[in-house]
UniProtKB/TrEMBL annotation:
Alphabetically ordered keywords of this record: Endoplasmic reticulum, Membrane, Transmembrane, Transmembrane helix
Zinc keyword on record: no
Domain of life (superkingdom): Bacteria
Name under which the protein is recorded: Lipase maturation factor family protein
Signal peptide: none
Compartment annotation: Endoplasmic reticulum membrane
Domain Lipase maturation factor 1/2 N-terminal: 163-321
PANTHER family: LIPASE MATURATION FACTOR
Domain Lipase maturation factor 1/2 C-terminal: 384-516
Family that this chain belongs to: Belongs to the lipase maturation factor family.
Lineage: Bacteria, Pseudomonadati, Myxococcota, Myxococcia, Myxococcales
Membrane topology per record: Multi-pass membrane protein
């Protein structure tokens, strides 16, 4: 993590320390003041947030349910004993064994005890049950703590397939929710208001999420963002496009440039309204929610857009939700010791989050030892993360086609469920489901073959049914193929005229081999895979 200048940190923490003192202290003028007084009263007077917290926790429980359900459809194919990257192989690796007890801190997971296929499936079921409990308001604090630990367990051993920013964001949201959720078996909206520091911590996360994405685009020096041409290629090169994305790609270039400029403005200017008076904060809520709606319609980014929309609830207050949720009973006053405990709980993630943002502006400098220790311990837990999607745009769309053959002459393609493939197949709306293999195939096409792709080919040559179910179909139902190769194509979206005339959504051109023909070596051979000459 990049350190910040002592002066910048002092200014921030001085502002941070003053926040709890504002809680409940402001009083509107008794009379007079006119329009300005009413504006100040609505903007500065501390509002209530119990309904906001309750609505957010219900939404968070739903997001956890989506995440576990989505992962459950793929977990054995990805990480089971006959999956692409088995969990057991990772946990039994000599590299982790050499760490001794430190390995439990480096890889925090409940699967150290049991990494069998049964345990992986049971973990998914437990996650679904706990998610429903949070949605129903049953012991939310305890249920959220168990959910966070369980999802952390999958992410810690998931390697590439659970390395997406929304996985890290869910863990950060989940941990902060544990620290701010009301205690009790059925607390409803809670007996006490969230402290000002807790509300600030949530708004700080919203701020970091959007501003981090905007700054990463600007600081990357990417030409498409600098010249406002990013949206010219965005819809065509998105990992998993949608029909709406295909339609948006047909818009005039002037509209695309305006869209690019709007994205940069929404991610670099409007995040500061998160800390603005109430009317401006509500404006930021609607604008940022609209941005997420457009992204959801034009691309499949798992449950990321749902997460972002749920986080936006913290820009509201109970008055804004008055027509949606009933008013809770009057809140009990918060004792001083409860406020102090709440402050101590959210202070560490808030401090690390502030350093993440400040570190994007200041030069690297030495951090205090306690901050270095805190950052080092928090890193494996993904308690605080940096965000920045699409800092560099891809201007072409390479796609990998996996093809199998029995005789080395006739090749049949493995059809993916959601990845771009057949030219006449319309892009699908799959979010909030996260097809993790399809996503990683998009990343693999942008570089050299990753190790997991070779492991995937091994499983297909072995005929692993768990891995085969990750695909839309099995072109070799009777026996596994003897050879598998990877071919690289360059895809482009068709225009409206071509679509009407041919029915094709895509046009493609073969650019070469990504991997030559591979086959399993005979038993006892030194290498698992061997190159095979193509006919």
């Amino acid at each position: 993590m990049r350190a910040v200048s002592p002066r910048g940190a002092q200014v921030f923490f001085r502002m941070l320390g003053s926040l709890p003192l504002l809680e409940g202290r402001w009083r509107p003028p008794a009379r007079g003041g006119g329009l300005l007084a009413r504006f100040v009263e609505r903007s500065v007077a501390p509002p209530h947030h119990r309904r906001v917290r309750q609505a957010f926790l219900v939404a968070l429980g739903g997001i956890y349910f989506i995440a576990f359900t989505s992962l459950g459809r793929q977990v054995l194919g990805l990480h089971g004993s006959r999956g692409i990257l088995p969990v057991k192989d990772l946990l039994d690796s000599p590299r982790l064994a050499a760490l001794g007890r430190e390995r439990y801190l480096k890889v925090p997971t409940v699967f150290w005890r049991d990494a069998s296929d049964t345990a992986l499936v049971r973990g998914i079921r437990a996650g679904q049950v706990l998610s429903l409990a949070v949605m129903l308001g049953l012991a939310p604090q305890a249920s959220l703590a168990a959910l966070w630990a369980l999802y952390q367990s999958y992410v810690s051993v998931g390697r590439e397939f659970l390395s997406f920013q929304w996985d890290a964001l869910l863990l950060e949201m989940g941990l902060l929710a544990v620290l701010t959720a009301p205690a009790g078996l059925r607390p409803g909206a809670g007996l006490r208001e969230p402290t000002a520091l807790e509300v600030f911590a949530w708004r700080m996360l919203v701020f970091r999420l959007y501003l981090g994405s905007g700054l990463s685009k600007i600081q990357s020096g990417d030409r498409t963002w600098r010249e406002l041409t990013a949206c010219d290629v965005y819809y065509e090169t998105a990992p998993l496009p949608t029909r709406a994305g295909w339609a948006a790609h047909q818009l005039p270039r002037r509209v695309q440039r305006y869209s690019t400029l709007s994205v940069l403005a929404l991610e670099t200017v409007f995040p500061f309204l998160v800390f603005a008076p109430r009317p401006l904060r509500l404006l930021a809520f609607w604008l940022l929610s609209g941005l997420q709606g457009v992204i959801f319609a034009t691309g499949n980014y798992g449950f990321f857009n749902v997460q972002s929309l749920a986080l936006g609830l913290w820009l509201l207050d109970d008055a804004a939700l008055g027509r949606v949720l009933p008013a809770p009973p009057p809140a009990r006053p918060r004792a001083l010791w409860r406020t102090a405990v709440a402050m101590l709980a959210v202070a560490p993630p808030l401090a690390l989050g502030a350093l993440d943002i400040l570190g994007r502006f200041d030069r690297p400098r030495r951090m205090p030892r306690w901050l270095e220790w805190l950052e080092r311990r928090a890193r494996p837990l993904r308690a605080v993360n940096g965000y920045g999607l699409f800092a560099v745009m891809t201007v072409r769309r390479p796609e990998i086609s996996l093809e199998g053959s029995v005789d080395g002459r006739t090749w049949r393609e493995y059809p993916f469920r959601y990845k771009v493939g057949a030219l006449d197949e319309a892009p699908r709306q799959v979010a909030p489901h996260q097809p993790r293999l399809d996503w990683q195939m998009w990343f693999a096409a942008l570089g050299s073959p990753p190790a997991w792709l070779l492991a995937l080919i091994v499983r297909l040559l072995e005929g692993s049914p768990e891995v085969e179910r990750l695909f839309a179909g099995n072109p070799f139902p009777e026996q596994p193929p003897r050879f598998i190769r990877a071919v690289l194509y360059d895809y482009r979206m068709t225009d409206r005229e071509t679509r009407r005339r041919t029915g094709a959504w895509w046009a493609r051109e073969r650019t070469g081999r990504y991997l030559p023909s591979l086959s399993l070596a005979p038993p006892g051979a030194t290498y698992r895979l061997e190159w095979a000459a193509e006919a």
